[in-house]
Design goal:
CATH superfamily of the largest domain in chain A: Response regulator
CATH topology of the largest domain in chain A: Rossmann fold
Helix content of chain A: 25-40%
Structural class of chain A: alpha/beta
Number of helices of chain A: 12
Largest sheet of chain A: 6 strands, parallel
Radius of gyration of chain A: 27 Å
Distance between the termini of chain A: 82 Å
Shape of chain A: elongated
Strand content of chain A: 15-25%
Number of strands of chain A: 14
Oligomer: homodimer
CATH class of the largest domain in chain A: Alpha Beta
CATH architecture of the largest domain in chain A: 3-Layer(aba) Sandwich
DNA sequence: ATGAAAGCGCTAACAA
DNA sequence: TTGTTAGCGCTTTCAT
């Protein structure tokens, strides 16, 4: 086992610290620190000597010690349901890109949509002294643990979800407007019987109220519900009565019900002529079943989905979709977070702009046609 | 603004620390720490009092301070090309799941396949005092910065890549064997002209040597190259001479060349009867072009790919593929990492098992048929 | 069984 | 312009 000649066999001398640098440069710790931090006064000569020492020793400041002193760790947290989900993975990339620019790093925590895990996650992140958190909360109602974070002076931005009654800034897609536009498009093509197929969280029973002239959805703003709202609004604007049989809200926990719901619609006396699938999994299921049944798209059935996925452009016909860029949403959330971190620390912290709406785009392809 | 009566209006009293707990429990800091750490002696009564204080104050130990003392941060790093890539996102999830069990957190860094960014990433992670790193290195040759990490006593595990001449443990799929098996399958179906379409990193020019009786690939073990090797081995075993015209290795930086390469093969006097696409993007491109050209799969052309993706089961015919579970690979890498972290710190650290091979599976679907 | 005190690496208020 | 020093929150000898 070779060792530098003469060097005492110290097992694994850890990295040089600022004392080593100071000694090497023949100055005091404080001076070295000043040079490195670029504050206070120091003579040109000393600056050079210190920098040289840094280079020669390969010194890298210890961010843990720095965090200890300053309270700022240079780390932010991202809390989401599941990082392997494409939506979150892209959002994560957006967050990372902004973080890199700000010389910060990102810790990810998965919650699997469990409130308890989310609570643990915030606690752990706090104990790591993160400078801020981007979170896609499990619940838009139970956010005491999130409020606790902001109250501790650590900014939080909510991604893809809007927290009711809280000063927390949220970054969302214009789900309602985009859906309205999409449905308008179908209506413009002569469709009158347009089905809505979406998902719901188990925690939010779809409180759908369909009256003679008006239909509405109770509950907080959530992507899934806002899309239903957009759908109802478009119908209402076109004076098309909403039909309960054409609206399916399937719990995410019972994926097998997706196919059933669609099959039921196809079996109706007056089946729909167009399908609006409000999320990627639903679009996939619908396309699947339609193909299986040999239903011609768009001749017999138009299909329009929310979320662009790889495959929508590989199948025939290619699926028309409303796209939201989760990458952009992640970026926007991180931008807002760093902006808040810059501000006078919590004081009136999260300004007025409680909401950033990231635009969606409509990608017209070949799965939508005129009504039969 | 309500405040506890009598409590001085301190602006934002940060979280309680162990001093507060000790005082609250009427013991010394040391005693509180002992109780919390569960070591040394302490009377039953004191234990109770301390625990009570912890509960009442909502005390949570500061992991930064702990890290400072102990050198262990409870954080590991994951360095990959791009977390929004499905492969890495799944691997990340695997890593997170193991980390959670070990009460650790994960910091992610993207390199975009830039060596310089990878070097920065390792440096930054080290300065955060991570306990270990899982990395998918950009280069399998230039790994000085990675060696430096292990030499500093911080274990590293390489994911999906094998570092030449280094004691670093790697977790890989059985790329070569799986490809051989896949090609064998095609040969068994009567195919003789089997094309190989794969990608290469710009840094590793495809040093393909095709002799009269033997063909080989120079260079280190890398998924892309190992798949070529598997292909050549299968052909060789079946005494089918390798044909340079049927092997396309396209640089990842020139994606437009993928279609060209395939088009060229289709235009050959004796075009292939089967296509083996060695990665997801290639499979996608191939399917795309084949559809465009109206080439019937598998009647006119069999298609067999590496990597299972969502869409491969949505298109018709569904694509037969060799699957590797990046989630499992992530898990395996993290398991190995924590195992190393447990061992006597670097001392003979990375044992003998330099390599973990995660099995692949062959999913037979409908895109492969007998040779014409 | 408990407490006093040192020290991890760094920054910054203060003194010189 | 530079150095001295206190202290961030925690763990862990060492004394008692």
């Amino acid at each position: 086992m070779a060792t530098e000649p003469g060097s005492r066999e110290r097992p694994r001398r850890s990295r040089p610290n600022i004392n080593d640098v100071a000694r090497h440069a023949g100055v005091s710790r404080a001076t070295a620190s000043r040079v490195l931090g670029g504050y206070g006064y120091s003579s040109q000569e000393v600056v050079e000597r210190v920098n040289q020492a840094v280079r020669e020793l390969g010194y890298e400041p210890d961010r843990i010690a720095r965090t200890m002193r300053s309270g700022k760790s240079g780390v932010i947290g991202f809390v989401c349901a599941d990082i392997s989900d494409a939506f979150f993975a892209s959002a994560m990339r957006g967050i990372c890109d902004v973080a890199r620019r700000e010389k910060s790093q990102v810790i990810v925590m998965n919650t699997d949509n469990q409130l308890s895990q989310e609570q643990d996650a915030t606690r752990v992140l706090l104990s790591h002294k993160v400078d801020g958190i981007v979170i896609t909360p499990v619940s838009v109602r139970e956010h005491g643990h999130i409020d606790a974070v902001t109250e501790g002076g650590v900014p939080v931005v909510s991604l893809d979800r809007q927290l009711s009654d809280s000063g927390i800034h949220s970054v969302v897609a214009d789900n309602e407007a985009a859906t309205t536009a999409a449905i308008d498009h179908l209506i413009g093509l002569g469709h009158r019987r347009i089905a809505f197929l979406g998902s719901t969280q188990p925690e939010e029973p779809p409180a759908l109220r369909i009256g003679r002239t008006r239909a509405s959805v109770a509950g907080p703003s959530r992507p899934s519900l806002d899309r239903v709202r957009g759908y109802l609004r478009a119908l209402s604007a076109a004076a098309i009565p909403a039909d309960r049989d054409l609206i399916a809200l399937v719990s995410l926990e019972e994926p097998e019900r997706r196919l059933e719901a669609l099959a039921a619609m196809l079996a109706l006396e007056h089946p729909p002529t167009a399908l609006f699938t409000a999320d990627g999994t639903m679009t996939k299921s619908a396309f699947h079943l339609l193909s299986e049944r040999g239903v011609a798209i768009p001749a017999e059935m138009s299909l329009l989905g929310f979320d662009d996925l790889d495959w929508t452009t590989l199948v025939r016909p290619r699926i028309s979709v409303v796209v939201q860029s989760s990458y952009d949403m992640g970026r926007a959330a991180a931008e807002e977070l760093f902006a808040q971190m810059g501000r006078p620390a919590g004081e009136g912290g999260n300004g007025q702009g409680r909401r950033t709406v990231v635009p969606t785009r409509f990608l017209e392809r070949e799965s939508v046609g005129v009504a039969r």
